[in-house]
Design a protein that fits this description.
This protein has 2 domains: about 120 residues, Leucine Aminopeptidase, subunit E, domain 1 (3-Layer(aba) Sandwich); about 325 residues, 3-Layer(aba) Sandwich (Aminopeptidase), CATH 3.40.630.10. It is built from 14 helices and 20 strands. The strands form 4 sheets. Strands 7, 8, 9, 10, 11, 14, 15, 16 and 18 form a 9-stranded mixed beta sheet that branches. Strands 1-6-5-2-4-3 form a 6-stranded mixed beta sheet, sandwiched between helices. The longest helix is centred in the first third of the chain and has 19 residues. The radius of gyration is 24 Å and the shape is elongated. The chain binds ligand BES and zinc ion (ZN) (2 copies). One zinc ion (ZN) binds next to strand 10.
Length: about 450
């Protein structure tokens, strides 16, 4: 497997240069080069490549068709997968070019190991190497966790992944399971009850207790069958990714700790498998949550908000300065915004503005959807405080967000992210498969909000 450090070469390393060239500039090339371009059919169309050979046949440089001005910021970097092995430098490269270069080269290959192609980029001038490596490492971690099949990644393995990250930064970790879980986190217990792999709540804390408290909560459903409200096979196919929220908060936590941001970080991951057996929870069941609110089960497939409710209630008890949750929570979010643009929800206008700004800057786009209180009526039920599934299938991502809000009262700021965690079709820097979403944007927001 590829490691971030192997992708970049130090400034000053011997390298083949990548020279951007526009169609207009093509006409003013020296005659011999122009001829070569003509015979190779190179027209400098965006991101097309042409090697320029020296007299002894060695590649001297590559001409690269300049990307169009509206191209994905990763597009230039993503030529990494099209170049032959070697070390390259590119004067036009930015931070996002370098990031795209690395993220493009990711492969999930433990079951079909392949030699990683060695295409290195000389660190572009002015790029913060520590930041770059932090982002690449965290993204690879998130992708690996999501891509790992559910037979290999269960609650135990998710716990092991969290322990590894916590240990690397000397964070204090506790994991609650068994009778204690049943008593203190009834919904996490209930959702995980039918699985042979036991449910648990992973909880780690890092940093100076005097610093502002930032708490991250991630949905860790290692596989979502839908429960008794079983999913059709086409919807179940990708459900190994239902721990995408957990993967993303672990990646974000790793970045925060590596960068030593001046915050007291806490990470909560309810880890469960939503399985089917005689002791599965049922539609129509009613449970009392950690917070004391009662929930009627309208649909056992709306399990994410149940486990998050108990984890958010715990997070909220210490009134954190910032509370974030990330979850592959609803299909409705995909219907609304598609796979690439995760919606977020918050009442904090300054936080929303900062998320929008940094989402764009980091090429990690996000879109705010409304916590439209009148839709609470869609999750009302005569027999409990809340129903876990909205009526009529309307505004599914909003009603899920409203459900979660009921468990957050004391946090000074709160935002919920309904992510997809998956790239269905390969795009520049984003190979098909598990994906980190909102992680880099959130890091930038946290770094800015709690700057020393
Ligand atoms: N894990 C799914 C949501 C999901 C589905 C995320 C597909 C990404 C892609 C979640 O647990 C779920 O099944 N939600 C239901 C809720 C409904 C029953 C109220 C949904 O969105 O259909
Ligand atoms: Zn579900
Ligand atoms: Zn789910």
């Amino acid at each position: 497997m590829l490691n971030a450090k192997e992708i970049f070469a130090a400034e000053g390393s011997k390298a083949v240069s990548l020279r951007l060239i526009s169609k207009a500039e093509l006409a003013s090339l020296p005659a011999a080069l122009k001829l070569q371009a003509q015979s190779l059919g190179f027209e400098a169309s965006p991101l097309s490549l042409m090697p320029v050979l020296s007299a002894n046949g060695a590649v001297q440089e590559f001409l690269v068709g300049a990307p169009s001005t509206d191209a994905d910021p990763f597009a230039l970097g993503a030529i990494s997968s099209k170049l032959p092995p070697g070390t390259y430098e590119c004067a036009a490269a930015t931070h996002l070019t370098a990031l795209g270069w690395a993220l493009e080269l990711y492969r999930y290959d433990p079951f079909r190991p392949a030699e990683a192609k060695k295409v290195k980029l000389v660190l572009p001038k002015g790029v913060d190497e520590a930041r770059l490596l932090r982002e690449v490492d965290a993204t690879f971690l998130v992708r690996d966790l999501i891509n790992t099949p559910a037979n290999i990644l269960g609650p135990d393995e998710l716990e092991a992944a969290a322990r590894k990250i916590a240990r690397a930064h000397k964070a204090a970790i506790t994991v609650i399971s068994g009778k204690k879980l049943e008593k203190e986190f009834p919904l996490i217990h209930v959702v995980g009850a039918a699985a042979t792999r036991a449910p648990r709540l992973i909880d780690f804390t890092w940093g100076n207790p005097k610093h502002p408290k930032v708490t991250l909560v991630g949905k860790g459903v290692v596989f979502d069958t839908g429960g008794l409200d079983i999913k059709p096979s086409s919807s179940m196919l990708l459900m190994k990714k239902d721990m995408g929220g957990a993967a993303n908060v672990l990646g974000l936590a790793q970045m925060v700790m590596e960068a030593k941001l001046p915050v007291r970080l806490r990470v909560l991951v309810p880890a469960v498998e939503n399985a089917i057996a005689g002791d599965a929870f049922r539609p129509g069941d009613v449970f009392k949550t950690r917070k004391g609110l009662t929930v009627e089960i309208g649909n056992t497939d709306a399990e994410g908000r149940l486990i998050l409710a108990d984890a958010l209630a715990l997070a909220d008890e210490e009134a954190p300065d910032l509370l974030i949750d990330m979850a592959t929570l609803t299909g409705a979010a995909r219907v609304a915004l598609g796979p690439d643009l995760p919606p977020f929800y918050t009442d904090d206008a300054a936080l929303a503005a900062s998320l929008n700004l940094h989402g764009m800057k980091e090429n990690d786009p996000l879109w705010q959807l409304p916590l439209w209180r009148p839709y609470y009526s869609l999750i009302e039920t005569p027999i409990a405080d809340l129903n876990n599934a909205g009526a009529g299938g309307f505004a599914g991502s909003i009603t899920a967000a409203l459900f979660l809000c009921r468990f957050v009262e004391k946090a000074k700021a709160y935002a919920h992210f309904d992510i997809f965690g998956w790239v269905p079709n390969t795009k520049p820097g984003r190979p098909k498969g598990g994906e980190a979403q909102a992680m880099r944007a959130l890091f930038a927001v946290i770094a800015e909000r709690f700057a020393k």
